From TrEMBL:
Record keywords: Hydrolase, Metal-binding, Zinc
SUPFAM superfamilies: Composite domain of metallo-dependent hydrolases, Metallo-dependent hydrolases
Name of this protein: Hydroxydechloroatrazine ethylaminohydrolase (AtzB) (Hydroxyatrazine hydrolase)
Molecular-function GO terms, alphabetical: deaminase activity; hydrolase activity, acting on carbon-nitrogen (but not peptide) bonds, in cyclic amidines; metal ion binding
Limits of the Amidohydrolase-related domain: 59-423
The protein's enzyme class: hydrolase
Organism from which the protein derives: Methylorubrum extorquens (strain ATCC 14718 / DSM 1338 / JCM 2805 / NCIMB 9133 / AM1)
Coiled-coil portions: none
EC number: 3.5.99.3
C-alpha cells in the first residue's frame, strides 16, 4: 500500500550480477517508493510482483548521497584566474567573477549539476549555496524547483556570507548580506520547502559559509532557528591551515573552539572537509556526533590536506562524501569521488586499512548519517528505493573478478540506471526528460558569455 492509501505496484529487480546488500543475491522488490523485501539467491518474492526487471548485467548499490557541493561553480570550471592556487587565493580570484551570476545562469548551473550527479549514481544531492548577489535572492527556490523537475532527492542549504573584507572577513562587500536579511530568508525557505518527514524529497539546511565569511551572531542564531524547525546545520570548517590561522587571529581560538562557542557541537551539524583537527578536536567532534563530509577530489586539487576519516569515525563522527564545488573539483561525479576517497585514504592509512566497501559506505550510509536520515543509504526493507545500477560492459572492466570492487578500482563513472523513490530517473545511461546535448550547449554558451 502506498503512502496515499492506493495499491502500489511491485517491481522485482531480479538476479543482479552483484548487490551491496546482505541476503539479496536474488534481487530486491520495490513497492511504491520503498524497498519491500530482499530476495535471497535462488529465491522468489514473498508476494506476487507486477513487473520484473532483469538485472543480470548490473551491479546494484544504494543510491549515492552527496553531502557537499556548490552548483553555481559548474560555470567556472578550470577558470584561468583560479587554477593552480590554494583555497584563499583561489577564492579571492573567483569572488569578483562569481558576482556576475544571474538567475538564468544559476538555474542552468543547478540543472547541469543535478544531472551530472544523477548520471554518476547519486540519488540525494546536497548543495551549499552561499552566494546571493543582487537579483539572486530566490536561489533556494530555483534549486528546489529544479530538484523537483528532475525527480532527485535534495538537501538544499541556505548558505550565507555576512562578514566582508571591510569587517575583517574574506569576501568582498558586494557579495555579502546582513545577518537580519539572511535569517529572515532562512526562515522563509524553511517554511516553504523543509520537509522533516521520512521519505522527504526536499529538506532545507542552514549553512553559514565559514568562519572567515560570517559573523558569530549569524552562527548562533542559525543554530537556534535549526532547532526550532528541526533542520540540519552545515558549514566549512578546518579545510586549510590558513583557516585555522584566520580563526586564531580573528577570534583567538581554533575552529572547533569557535564551533563550540556558537552552539554547533551537535548531531544536527555536519562539516565540509574537516581536515586540520588535532587529536583532542577529533575526540570532541566525535563525542558530540558532528558529521564530516570528506571531499577527496577537492582536497587534492587545492592541496588542502588529508581528512582524518578513520580517526573521526572511530571517535563517533559520521563520515560522508561530497564532490565539492565544480570549480575546485571540475566535476560533479560522486562515483569518481568514491574512487578518489579510496585512493587518498589508502595513501594516508595503508592498503589494508581502507577498502572499496569503506569508500562506498561513506558515500551511502555515512552520508545519510551526516544528514541524520535513516530512510536512505542502505538497501533494506522499509527504506526508500534509491538505487544505482552499473554495468561492467566497458573495456576498463574486462578481466575484473569482483564486481563490487571493480566499480571502484576500475573507475566506474556513469550509471546505466538510477532509481529515486521507486521511479527510474536514468534509463540506459540517459537522464529521463533531459536533453544532455542541449543542456551542455546552453550552459557552455552562458558560461563563456558571463565568465569568459
Amino acid at each position: 500500500m502506498a503512502a496515499d492509501g492506493t495499491d502500489a505496484r511491485r517491481l522485482w529487480i531480479r538476479d543482479p550480477l552483484a548487490i551491496l546488500a546482505d541476503g539479496a543475491s536474488g534481487g530486491v522488490v520495490v513497492e511504491g517508493s520503498r524497498i519491500a523485501e530482499r530476495v535471497p539467491a535462488g529465491g522468489q518474492p514473498a508476494a506476487p510482483v507486477d513487473e520484473t526487471f532483469d538485472a543480470s548485467r548490473h551491479v546494484v548499490i544504494p543510491g549515492l548521497i552527496n553531502t557537499h557541493h556548490h552548483f553555481f561553480q559548474t560555470l567556472t570550471r578550470a577558470h584561468p584566474a583560479a587554477i593552480n592556487k590554494p583555497l584563499f587565493p583561489w577564492l579571492q580570484a573567483l569572488y569578483g567573477i562569481w558576482g556576475r551570476l544571474t538567475p538564468d545562469a544559476f538555474r542552468l548551473a543547478t540543472r547541469l549539476a543535478y544531472t551530472e550527479l544523477l548520471l554518476s549514481g547519486c540519488t540525494t544531492a546536497g548543495d551549499h549555496h552561499y552566494l546571493f548577489p543582487n537579483g539572486l535572492e530566490s536561489a533556494v527556490d530555483i534549486q528546489v524547483e529544479e530538484a523537483r523537475s528532475l525527480g532527485i532527492r535534495a538537501i538544499v542549504t541556505r548558505g550565507s556570507m555576512s562578514l566582508s573584507q571591510d569587517e575583517g572577513g574574506l569576501p568582498p562587500k558586494a557579495l555579502v548580506q546582513d545577518d537580519d536579511t539572511i535569517l529572515a530568508d532562512s526562515e522563509r525557505v524553511l517554511r516553504l520547502f523543509h520537509d522533516p518527514a521520512p521519505g522527504a524529497m526536499v529538506r532545507i539546511g542552514l549553512a553559514p559559509c565559514s568562519p572567515f565569511a560570517v559573523t558569530k551572531r549569524l552562527m548562533r542564531e542559525s543554530a537556534v532557528l535549526a532547532e526550532r524547525y528541526d533542520c540540519p546545520l552545515h558549514t566549512h570548517l578546518g579545510e586549510t591551515r590558513d583557516e585555522n590561522a584566520f580563526c586564531l587571529e580573528a577570534f583567538g581560538q581554533r575552529p572547533v573552539d569557535y564551533l563550540e562557542e556558537v552552539g554547533w557541537m551537535t548531531r544536527r551539524a555536519w562539516l565540509a572537509h574537516g581536515i586540520h583537527f588535532n587529536d583532542d578536536e577529533v575526540r570532541r567532534l566525535g563525542a558530540a556526533g558532528v558529521g564530516v563530509c570528506h571531499c577527496p577530489t577537492s582536497n587534492m586539487v587545492l592541496a588542502s590536506g588529508h581528512c582524518r576519516t578513520c580517526e573521526l569515525e572511530a571517535a563517533g563522527s559520521p563520515v560522508g562524501l561530497g564532490v565539492d564545488g565544480s570549480a575546485s573539483n571540475d566535476s560533479s561525479n560522486l562515483m569518481e569521488g568514491v574512487r578518489h576517497a579510496l585512493m587518498i585514504n589508502r595513501l594516508t592509512y595503508g592498503a589494508e586499512a581502507v577498502t572499496h566497501l569503506d569508500a562506498l559506505r561513506w558515500a551511502t550510509e555515512g552520508s545519510a548519517a551526516c544528514l541524520n536520515r535513516n530512510d536512505i543509504g542502505r538497501i533494506e526493507p522499509g527504506r526508500e528505493a534509491d538505487l544505482a545500477l552499473f554495468t561492467l560492459d566497458e573495456l576498463r572492466f574486462s578481466g575484473a573478478h569482483d564486481p563490487l570492487a571493480a566499480l571502484v578500482l576500475c573507475g566506474a563513472h556513469r550509471a546505466d540506471r538510477v532509481m529515486v523513490a521507486g521511479t527510474w530517473r536514468v534509463i540506459d545511461g540517459e537522464p529521463v526528460g533531459i536533453e544532455t546535448g542541449r543542456l551542455r550547449e546552453e550552459h557552455s554558451r552562458l558560461a563563456q558569455h558571463l565568465f569568459g
